[in-house]
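Lab manual, section 2.4: Encoding a predicted structure.

Procedure: take the sequence of the chain (359 residues), apply the prediction step described in section 2.3, and record the output as C-alpha coordinates. A sample record is shown.
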Amino acid sequence: MRRLSHQTMVDIVNGAGLFGAGGGGSITSALQLVEELRAEGTEPILLSLDEVENDKTIATVAGMGAPKALLEKGFNIEGMKALELLEKTADKKIDYLIPVETGAFNTLVPIYVGAKKGLPIVDADGAGRAVPELEMLMFHFHNILPSPFALADKGTNAAVVYTANSYDCENLARHVVMALGMSAGIASYIMDGGMCKKAMIPSAVSVAEKAGRIVRDAKSAGKDFIEPLQAEFSGYHLITGKVEKMTTETKKGFDFGRFVVKGLGGNDGDILVVDYKNENMIAKKNGRLVAMVPDLICTISADAQPLTNADLSEGMEIAVLAFPCDGKWRENDRHQVFKHVLDMLDYSGPYIHIEDLNS
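Recorded output:
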Protein backbone atom coordinates (compact mmCIF):
# COMPACT_ATOMS: atom_id res chain seq x y z
CA MET A 1 0.00 0.00 0.00
CA ARG A 2 1.26 3.46 -0.81
CA ARG A 3 -0.07 6.97 -1.09
CA LEU A 4 0.13 8.73 -4.44
CA SER A 5 1.76 12.14 -4.35
CA HIS A 6 0.92 14.92 -6.78
CA GLN A 7 4.02 14.21 -8.86
CA THR A 8 3.27 10.48 -8.91
CA MET A 9 -0.24 11.17 -10.20
CA VAL A 10 1.14 13.44 -12.92
CA ASP A 11 3.55 10.67 -13.94
CA ILE A 12 0.68 8.17 -13.98
CA VAL A 13 -1.41 10.44 -16.19
CA ASN A 14 1.41 10.96 -18.68
CA GLY A 15 2.44 7.32 -18.77
CA ALA A 16 -1.15 6.14 -19.10
CA GLY A 17 -1.65 8.79 -21.77
CA LEU A 18 1.16 7.21 -23.75
CA PHE A 19 -0.02 3.62 -23.24
CA GLY A 20 -3.61 4.57 -23.96
CA ALA A 21 -2.57 4.15 -27.59
CA GLY A 22 -4.42 7.24 -28.74
CA GLY A 23 -7.42 6.84 -26.44
CA GLY A 24 -8.32 6.46 -22.80
CA GLY A 25 -9.43 10.07 -22.49
CA SER A 26 -7.72 13.43 -22.58
CA ILE A 27 -4.52 14.07 -20.64
CA THR A 28 -5.70 17.65 -20.09
CA SER A 29 -8.93 16.45 -18.46
CA ALA A 30 -7.00 14.02 -16.26
CA LEU A 31 -4.54 16.66 -15.10
CA GLN A 32 -7.44 18.90 -14.11
CA LEU A 33 -8.60 16.17 -11.72
CA VAL A 34 -5.06 15.81 -10.36
CA GLU A 35 -4.89 19.54 -9.65
CA GLU A 36 -8.23 19.39 -7.86
CA LEU A 37 -6.88 16.65 -5.57
CA ARG A 38 -3.72 18.66 -4.92
CA ALA A 39 -5.76 21.71 -3.97
CA GLU A 40 -7.61 19.55 -1.44
CA GLY A 41 -4.37 18.01 -0.13
CA THR A 42 -5.66 14.53 -0.93
CA GLU A 43 -3.31 11.59 -1.60
CA PRO A 44 -5.10 8.48 -2.95
CA ILE A 45 -4.11 4.99 -1.79
CA LEU A 46 -2.81 2.39 -4.25
CA LEU A 47 -2.87 -1.33 -3.42
CA SER A 48 -0.88 -4.04 -5.19
CA LEU A 49 -2.82 -7.11 -6.32
CA ASP A 50 -1.08 -9.09 -3.58
CA GLU A 51 -2.62 -6.80 -0.97
CA VAL A 52 -6.17 -7.31 -2.25
CA GLU A 53 -8.23 -9.54 0.04
CA ASN A 54 -10.14 -12.27 -1.80
CA ASP A 55 -13.49 -11.47 -0.20
CA LYS A 56 -13.42 -7.72 -0.88
CA THR A 57 -15.76 -6.20 -3.47
CA ILE A 58 -14.20 -4.32 -6.39
CA ALA A 59 -15.71 -2.29 -9.23
CA THR A 60 -14.65 -0.07 -12.09
CA VAL A 61 -15.35 3.63 -12.50
CA ALA A 62 -14.60 5.44 -15.75
CA GLY A 63 -15.73 7.95 -18.33
CA MET A 64 -17.50 6.69 -21.45
CA GLY A 65 -18.10 8.44 -24.74
CA ALA A 66 -16.34 10.27 -27.51
CA PRO A 67 -12.95 11.61 -26.27
CA LYS A 68 -13.55 15.05 -27.78
CA ALA A 69 -16.89 15.34 -25.99
CA LEU A 70 -15.33 14.34 -22.67
CA LEU A 71 -12.64 16.97 -23.16
CA GLU A 72 -15.02 19.75 -24.18
CA LYS A 73 -17.63 19.15 -21.45
CA GLY A 74 -15.25 18.47 -18.58
CA PHE A 75 -15.69 15.73 -16.00
CA ASN A 76 -15.87 15.56 -12.21
CA ILE A 77 -18.98 14.41 -10.32
CA GLU A 78 -20.22 11.96 -12.97
CA GLY A 79 -17.96 9.16 -11.77
CA MET A 80 -19.05 9.52 -8.15
CA LYS A 81 -22.71 9.62 -9.14
CA ALA A 82 -22.32 6.46 -11.23
CA LEU A 83 -20.57 4.65 -8.35
CA GLU A 84 -23.27 5.64 -5.88
CA LEU A 85 -25.94 4.44 -8.31
CA LEU A 86 -24.12 1.12 -8.78
CA GLU A 87 -23.90 0.52 -5.02
CA LYS A 88 -27.57 1.36 -4.56
CA THR A 89 -28.70 -0.79 -7.48
CA ALA A 90 -26.53 -3.82 -6.61
CA ASP A 91 -27.07 -3.37 -2.87
CA LYS A 92 -23.33 -3.79 -2.34
CA LYS A 93 -20.66 -1.70 -0.64
CA ILE A 94 -17.68 -1.31 -2.94
CA ASP A 95 -14.38 -1.73 -1.07
CA TYR A 96 -11.84 -0.99 -3.83
CA LEU A 97 -11.87 0.64 -7.24
CA ILE A 98 -9.92 -0.45 -10.31
CA PRO A 99 -9.30 1.27 -13.66
CA VAL A 100 -11.27 -0.25 -16.50
CA GLU A 101 -8.32 0.29 -18.87
CA THR A 102 -5.00 2.13 -19.21
CA GLY A 103 -5.46 5.70 -20.39
CA ALA A 104 -4.73 9.14 -18.99
CA PHE A 105 -8.34 9.84 -18.10
CA ASN A 106 -9.66 6.37 -17.37
CA THR A 107 -6.69 5.44 -15.20
CA LEU A 108 -7.09 8.66 -13.26
CA VAL A 109 -10.89 8.64 -12.82
CA PRO A 110 -10.95 5.77 -10.27
CA ILE A 111 -7.97 7.36 -8.50
CA TYR A 112 -9.93 10.62 -8.31
CA VAL A 113 -13.20 8.98 -7.25
CA GLY A 114 -11.35 6.75 -4.79
CA ALA A 115 -9.73 9.77 -3.19
CA LYS A 116 -13.09 11.52 -2.92
CA LYS A 117 -14.85 8.47 -1.48
CA GLY A 118 -12.00 7.19 0.71
CA LEU A 119 -11.55 3.98 -1.31
CA PRO A 120 -8.18 2.41 -2.26
CA ILE A 121 -7.34 1.78 -5.93
CA VAL A 122 -6.04 -1.58 -7.16
CA ASP A 123 -2.79 -1.53 -9.15
CA ALA A 124 -4.17 -3.40 -12.16
CA ASP A 125 -6.71 -2.87 -14.92
CA GLY A 126 -8.82 -4.63 -17.52
CA ALA A 127 -6.75 -4.17 -20.67
CA GLY A 128 -3.22 -2.83 -20.13
CA ARG A 129 -4.09 -0.28 -22.83
CA ALA A 130 -7.21 1.62 -23.88
CA VAL A 131 -9.86 -0.06 -26.03
CA PRO A 132 -12.98 1.31 -27.73
CA GLU A 133 -15.51 -1.39 -26.77
CA LEU A 134 -16.47 -3.25 -23.60
CA GLU A 135 -16.01 -6.73 -25.08
CA MET A 136 -12.34 -5.81 -25.60
CA LEU A 137 -11.69 -5.99 -21.86
CA MET A 138 -10.42 -8.86 -19.71
CA PHE A 139 -13.72 -8.77 -17.78
CA HIS A 140 -15.40 -10.12 -20.90
CA PHE A 141 -12.95 -13.00 -21.30
CA HIS A 142 -13.40 -14.07 -17.68
CA ASN A 143 -17.21 -13.84 -17.67
CA ILE A 144 -17.30 -10.94 -15.23
CA LEU A 145 -20.68 -9.48 -16.10
CA PRO A 146 -21.10 -5.76 -16.77
CA SER A 147 -24.59 -5.70 -15.23
CA PRO A 148 -25.69 -3.70 -13.45
CA PHE A 149 -24.02 -1.00 -15.55
CA ALA A 150 -24.61 2.46 -14.06
CA LEU A 151 -24.34 5.67 -16.08
CA ALA A 152 -24.73 9.28 -14.96
CA ASP A 153 -24.21 12.78 -16.28
CA LYS A 154 -23.47 16.01 -14.41
CA GLY A 155 -27.13 16.76 -13.85
CA THR A 156 -30.02 14.61 -12.77
CA ASN A 157 -29.90 12.11 -15.61
CA ALA A 158 -28.86 8.54 -14.89
CA ALA A 159 -29.56 5.03 -16.12
CA VAL A 160 -28.82 1.41 -15.25
CA VAL A 161 -28.31 -1.11 -18.06
CA TYR A 162 -28.91 -4.84 -17.54
CA THR A 163 -27.65 -7.28 -20.16
CA ALA A 164 -26.33 -10.83 -20.29
CA ASN A 165 -23.00 -9.96 -21.92
CA SER A 166 -20.57 -7.18 -22.82
CA TYR A 167 -21.67 -7.05 -26.48
CA ASP A 168 -25.25 -6.13 -25.67
CA CYS A 169 -24.15 -3.84 -22.85
CA GLU A 170 -21.87 -1.96 -25.24
CA ASN A 171 -24.73 -1.40 -27.67
CA LEU A 172 -27.26 -0.26 -25.09
CA ALA A 173 -24.82 1.81 -23.04
CA ARG A 174 -23.56 3.63 -26.15
CA HIS A 175 -27.11 4.71 -26.95
CA VAL A 176 -27.54 5.99 -23.41
CA VAL A 177 -24.23 7.86 -23.67
CA MET A 178 -25.38 9.45 -26.93
CA ALA A 179 -28.59 10.57 -25.19
CA LEU A 180 -26.44 12.06 -22.41
CA GLY A 181 -24.52 14.20 -24.88
CA MET A 182 -21.72 11.79 -25.87
CA SER A 183 -20.15 11.58 -22.40
CA ALA A 184 -21.01 10.02 -19.04
CA GLY A 185 -19.58 8.58 -15.87
CA ILE A 186 -19.90 4.81 -15.62
CA ALA A 187 -19.53 2.21 -12.86
CA SER A 188 -19.66 -1.50 -13.47
CA TYR A 189 -17.96 -4.93 -13.41
CA ILE A 190 -18.45 -5.89 -9.77
CA MET A 191 -16.11 -8.74 -8.75
CA ASP A 192 -14.44 -10.12 -5.68
CA GLY A 193 -10.75 -9.91 -4.90
CA GLY A 194 -10.07 -13.50 -5.94
CA MET A 195 -11.45 -12.95 -9.44
CA CYS A 196 -9.63 -9.63 -9.69
CA LYS A 197 -6.31 -11.39 -9.10
CA LYS A 198 -7.11 -14.00 -11.73
CA ALA A 199 -8.51 -11.81 -14.49
CA MET A 200 -6.89 -8.40 -14.35
CA ILE A 201 -3.61 -7.21 -15.84
CA PRO A 202 -1.30 -6.63 -12.86
CA SER A 203 0.73 -3.49 -12.07
CA ALA A 204 -0.93 -1.45 -14.82
CA VAL A 205 -0.91 1.75 -12.76
CA SER A 206 2.72 1.29 -11.69
CA VAL A 207 3.77 0.60 -15.28
CA ALA A 208 2.12 3.85 -16.37
CA GLU A 209 3.86 5.66 -13.53
CA LYS A 210 7.24 4.28 -14.63
CA ALA A 211 6.69 5.41 -18.23
CA GLY A 212 5.68 8.89 -17.08
CA ARG A 213 8.74 9.13 -14.84
CA ILE A 214 11.07 8.06 -17.68
CA VAL A 215 9.67 10.78 -19.91
CA ARG A 216 9.87 13.39 -17.13
CA ASP A 217 13.46 12.51 -16.24
CA ALA A 218 14.58 12.58 -19.88
CA LYS A 219 12.84 15.88 -20.48
CA SER A 220 14.30 17.57 -17.39
CA ALA A 221 17.79 16.37 -18.32
CA GLY A 222 17.38 17.48 -21.93
CA LYS A 223 17.99 13.90 -23.09
CA ASP A 224 16.30 11.65 -25.64
CA PHE A 225 13.14 10.00 -24.30
CA ILE A 226 12.57 7.51 -27.09
CA GLU A 227 15.50 5.21 -26.41
CA PRO A 228 14.80 4.71 -22.66
CA LEU A 229 11.13 3.99 -23.38
CA GLN A 230 12.11 1.44 -26.01
CA ALA A 231 14.61 -0.19 -23.67
CA GLU A 232 12.27 -0.40 -20.66
CA PHE A 233 9.15 -1.58 -22.50
CA SER A 234 10.59 -3.44 -25.53
CA GLY A 235 9.27 -0.76 -27.83
CA TYR A 236 9.71 0.23 -31.47
CA HIS A 237 10.26 3.69 -32.92
CA LEU A 238 8.02 3.81 -35.99
CA ILE A 239 8.63 7.39 -37.09
CA THR A 240 9.43 10.94 -36.02
CA GLY A 241 7.82 13.59 -38.16
CA LYS A 242 5.04 16.09 -38.70
CA VAL A 243 1.32 15.35 -38.74
CA GLU A 244 0.58 16.16 -42.35
CA LYS A 245 -3.10 15.29 -42.36
CA MET A 246 -5.67 14.32 -39.77
CA THR A 247 -9.34 13.47 -40.20
CA THR A 248 -11.83 12.68 -37.43
CA GLU A 249 -15.53 11.87 -37.55
CA THR A 250 -17.64 11.22 -34.46
CA LYS A 251 -20.37 8.69 -35.07
CA LYS A 252 -22.28 6.23 -32.89
CA GLY A 253 -20.35 7.45 -29.84
CA PHE A 254 -16.87 6.86 -31.28
CA ASP A 255 -14.15 8.97 -32.87
CA PHE A 256 -13.12 7.41 -36.18
CA GLY A 257 -10.18 8.81 -38.07
CA ARG A 258 -6.76 8.68 -39.65
CA PHE A 259 -3.58 10.65 -39.26
CA VAL A 260 -0.64 10.77 -41.63
CA VAL A 261 2.88 11.52 -40.39
CA LYS A 262 5.53 12.73 -42.83
CA GLY A 263 8.99 11.79 -41.62
CA LEU A 264 11.65 14.29 -40.56
CA GLY A 265 15.37 13.93 -39.89
CA GLY A 266 16.34 10.29 -39.94
CA ASN A 267 12.84 9.48 -41.16
CA ASP A 268 12.93 11.92 -44.08
CA GLY A 269 10.98 10.43 -46.97
CA ASP A 270 8.96 8.05 -44.75
CA ILE A 271 5.17 8.19 -44.45
CA LEU A 272 3.26 6.58 -41.59
CA VAL A 273 -0.52 6.17 -41.81
CA VAL A 274 -2.46 5.32 -38.63
CA ASP A 275 -6.17 4.46 -38.57
CA TYR A 276 -8.11 4.63 -35.33
CA LYS A 277 -11.42 3.99 -33.63
CA ASN A 278 -10.91 6.09 -30.50
CA GLU A 279 -7.62 4.14 -30.11
CA ASN A 280 -4.99 3.51 -32.77
CA MET A 281 -5.83 0.25 -34.50
CA ILE A 282 -3.33 -0.22 -37.32
CA ALA A 283 -0.20 1.50 -38.66
CA LYS A 284 1.45 1.25 -42.07
CA LYS A 285 4.84 2.72 -42.89
CA ASN A 286 5.49 3.38 -46.55
CA GLY A 287 2.58 1.06 -47.30
CA ARG A 288 3.89 -1.81 -45.13
CA LEU A 289 2.10 -3.01 -42.00
CA VAL A 290 4.24 -2.21 -38.92
CA ALA A 291 1.84 -2.45 -35.96
CA MET A 292 -1.73 -3.47 -35.15
CA VAL A 293 -4.03 -4.07 -32.19
CA PRO A 294 -3.85 -5.41 -29.56
CA ASP A 295 -0.24 -4.13 -29.66
CA LEU A 296 0.03 -0.46 -28.69
CA ILE A 297 0.53 2.35 -31.23
CA CYS A 298 1.40 5.46 -29.22
CA THR A 299 2.15 9.12 -29.91
CA ILE A 300 4.31 11.63 -28.07
CA SER A 301 5.20 15.21 -29.02
CA ALA A 302 8.67 16.40 -29.94
CA ASP A 303 8.90 18.06 -26.51
CA ALA A 304 8.07 14.79 -24.72
CA GLN A 305 4.36 15.25 -24.05
CA PRO A 306 2.36 12.02 -24.50
CA LEU A 307 -0.64 12.58 -26.74
CA THR A 308 -4.07 11.10 -27.32
CA ASN A 309 -5.86 11.41 -30.63
CA ALA A 310 -8.04 14.11 -29.07
CA ASP A 311 -4.85 16.15 -28.58
CA LEU A 312 -3.38 15.67 -32.08
CA SER A 313 -3.61 18.30 -34.78
CA GLU A 314 -2.10 18.94 -38.18
CA GLY A 315 1.37 20.50 -38.13
CA MET A 316 2.42 18.94 -34.80
CA GLU A 317 5.83 17.30 -34.64
CA ILE A 318 5.49 13.89 -33.01
CA ALA A 319 7.12 10.52 -32.55
CA VAL A 320 5.07 7.37 -33.01
CA LEU A 321 6.16 4.44 -30.86
CA ALA A 322 4.76 0.93 -30.63
CA PHE A 323 4.90 -1.58 -27.78
CA PRO A 324 3.91 -5.24 -27.37
CA CYS A 325 0.59 -5.82 -25.62
CA ASP A 326 0.35 -7.65 -22.32
CA GLY A 327 0.76 -11.41 -22.72
CA LYS A 328 -2.86 -12.03 -21.69
CA TRP A 329 -3.92 -10.65 -25.08
CA ARG A 330 -2.00 -13.38 -26.87
CA GLU A 331 -3.79 -16.20 -25.08
CA ASN A 332 -6.87 -18.04 -26.41
CA ASP A 333 -7.16 -15.91 -29.60
CA ARG A 334 -8.38 -12.92 -27.60
CA HIS A 335 -7.14 -10.60 -30.35
CA GLN A 336 -10.15 -11.75 -32.41
CA VAL A 337 -12.34 -9.19 -30.61
CA PHE A 338 -10.65 -6.51 -32.74
CA LYS A 339 -11.34 -8.27 -36.06
CA HIS A 340 -14.57 -6.44 -36.88
CA VAL A 341 -12.84 -3.09 -36.37
CA LEU A 342 -9.89 -4.08 -38.55
CA ASP A 343 -12.32 -5.29 -41.21
CA MET A 344 -13.88 -1.81 -41.22
CA LEU A 345 -10.38 -0.40 -41.74
CA ASP A 346 -9.82 -2.65 -44.78
CA TYR A 347 -7.53 -5.12 -43.05
CA SER A 348 -8.76 -8.71 -43.12
CA GLY A 349 -5.49 -10.49 -42.45
CA PRO A 350 -4.31 -12.24 -39.29
CA TYR A 351 -2.96 -10.64 -36.14
CA ILE A 352 0.82 -10.41 -36.51
CA HIS A 353 2.90 -9.70 -33.41
CA ILE A 354 4.74 -6.41 -33.51
CA GLU A 355 7.99 -8.28 -32.89
CA ASP A 356 7.49 -10.18 -36.16
CA LEU A 357 6.46 -7.11 -38.13
CA ASN A 358 9.63 -5.30 -37.10
CA SER A 359 12.17 -8.13 -37.02
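Check your result against the sample. The chain is about 35% helix and 30% strand.
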